[in-house]
Structure formats: C-alpha cells, structure tokens
Design brief:
With about 300 residues, the protein is an all-alpha fold. It has a single domain (about 10-300), classed as Na+/H+ antiporter like fold. The protein is built from 19 helices and no strands. It is globular, with a radius of gyration of 19 Å.
Length: about 300
C-alpha cells in the first residue's frame, strides 16, 4: 500500500484534498496536528540536503528576484484585476494577501516527486517566507482600514521553528552522525517523506466544506477565484522563467502556485478580513491538482 501511494503520490495529493472535503469533521480534527507534520517534513527534507549548498543558493540574487516576482509582482497583478472586476473590499484584501503569501513548505518534496531540483525549490520557499511579513504589511496598509498590528512575535517564533530549527537540526545531525549510517537512513525513508504532504490538503480543506454547507453559491465563487489565482501564479512564473529552460520554469511555476496560507493567517489573523479563510480553504483543491497538471505539462513539453 505504501509503495502504491509513493508511486502515485502526485494524484494522491489531490485525492486527499477531496477526502478532506468529503470528511470535514475528520479534516477539522486533524487540522491542529499540521504544525507537527510541517516540522517533520521540513526536517526530513533538509536532512537530505547539503546545508552549504542551500546557503549558497540563498545568497544568489536570482532567488531573491524570484521572491519579488512571487510576492510584489503577483500582488500588483491581482490588485489590478480585483479592482477591474470590482471585488468587494474584503475579497480584494484576501486575494492580495494570498499573492503576498510565501510558498508551501511542502513544495520541495513536491518538486522532488516531479524529478526537478528540490534544492532550488527549497531556496525559493525560504526566500518567499522571509519576505512574507513585509508583503503582508504592505497588503494591509493599502487594502484595509483597520490599524495595522502584525503579530511579529508569532511570525518569528514560527520562522525559527519551521525554517531555522530544521536547518540547525540538519546541521547538527550532519556534524555528529556518521555519514554512512545517515545515508542509509535517508535512502530508506526518502521515498516515504512525500506521504507527509498528504496531510496538508486533507487537514486544510475542511473549512471550505463548512462554507459550502452554509452557502454553496458563495463557495463556488470562492473556488473559481482560488483556481484562477493558482493558474495565474503558475502561468506568470512559467513565462517569466521559460527562457531558462523547462526544468527551472516548471520549478518556479509550481513553487509560485503553492501558497502557505496557513502561515499567513497565523501572522495577520483577523486583520486579513472575513474572506481570507474561506478563500484559503478553497485554494487547497486547485493547489494540490497543480502537481498533476505540472507532470502532464512536463511530459507534453518533451514531445
């Protein structure tokens, strides 16, 4: 069974999003455990990476230019589109906040499953997470009228726990654990780390099901908007990077399409308005359909 799930991991991510929608009570009950899964996934992913190489990637100007595209450029594009479509103020704030959001911590595992450079995806993910508080602050200043009071303490605690914590853990393990034993351990577990990704679509989509039960038409509208946002981020990044080669373009596209909306909500909370959480829930289904679409697109581009 485990071998089957690993072999078909990309479509299984989408299946687990559907299961979370069909089983909202179980999904909501699983939600509080997601931070533990997140830390475990980051730690295991970083263990398989050379820390010196990761820091070298983060020192590259190209990574930070990508972070600008991921946040600032996407924020500008969706704000113009939202204004053109006459979005309500709460909805406009929500879509701009999604555009400001960094990439999912699960992205490197997804990129590795696609056969691309997970180190590049990890560097992109960390860079977009580091610029997140600035992007969210800008979004709140321009798109909401309440006093802006970000929970900086919560943000930096989560940053230490989910970024620097796993990096430090990985560094210490590489320093003190015999390399041969560590390599055998990583080879044994690496195929199964992708299974941890299944927890995110399953645990996050429950909130969208609650909205669907209360107002199906509004839920449908949010689903259409969420799907459009995922496609916009994906297509925009792909065409910006297409001249650098298929692998880099698709890595940038999938990294841009995946958004860590849970972390964004933990920073800004209710300041994001009532439309953000329903939109975040609606994002789960198209987000975890993107890897399947990317694999198909990758095969198509080979022809």
């Amino acid at each position: 069974m485990l071998v089957f799930l690993v072999r078909h991991s990309l479509p299984c991510m989408f299946v687990f999003a559907i299961l979370g929608f069909l089983l909202p009570t179980v999904s909501l009950a699983f939600f509080p455990f997601l931070p533990i899964v997140l830390f475990t996934l980051m730690s295991l992913t970083l263990l398989g990476m050379k820390q010196n190489e990761l820091i070298k990637r983060l020192s590259s100007c190209q990574i930070w230019l990508y972070a600008v595209l991921h946040s600032a450029v996407c924020m500008g594009v969706v704000s113009v589109i939202g204004w053109w479509l006459s979005f309500a103020a709460d909805l406009l704030l929500a879509v701009v906040a999604v555009a400001a959001t960094g990439s999912l911590f699960a992205t490197p595992a997804i990129v590795r499953a696609l056969g691309f450079d997970s180190m590049q995806a990890m560097a992109m993910t960390i860079a977009t997470t580091l610029v997140l508080p600035i992007s969210i602050f800008i979004a709140l200043v321009f798109f909401q009228t309440q006093s802006v009071a970000l929970d900086w303490t919560s943000y930096f605690v989560r940053l230490v726990v989910f970024i620097f914590g796993p990096m430090l853990f990985s560094f210490l393990v590489h320093q003190f654990v015999p390399r041969d034993g560590l390599n055998r351990f990583l080879m044994a577990i690496s195929p199964y780390t992708i299974l941890l990704v299944f927890a995110f679509p399953f645990g996050l989509v429950g909130s969208f099901r609650i909205l669907f039960d209360q107002d199906p038409m509004m839920a449908l509208n949010y689903f259409v908007i969420a799907t459009s946002l995922c496609l916009l981020f994906f297509v925009l990044s792909y065409f910006v990077y297409r001249k650098k080669g298929k692998a880099i373009a698709l890595t940038a596209a999938i990294t841009s399409g995946n958004r860590n909306v849970l972390l964004t909500y933990s920073i800004a909370g209710v300041l994001l308005g009532p439309a953000f959480l329903p939109l975040a829930g609606a994002l789960q289904i198209p987000t975890y359909l993107l890897p399947v679409f990317t694999r198909w697109l990758n095969k198509t581009l080979l022809k």
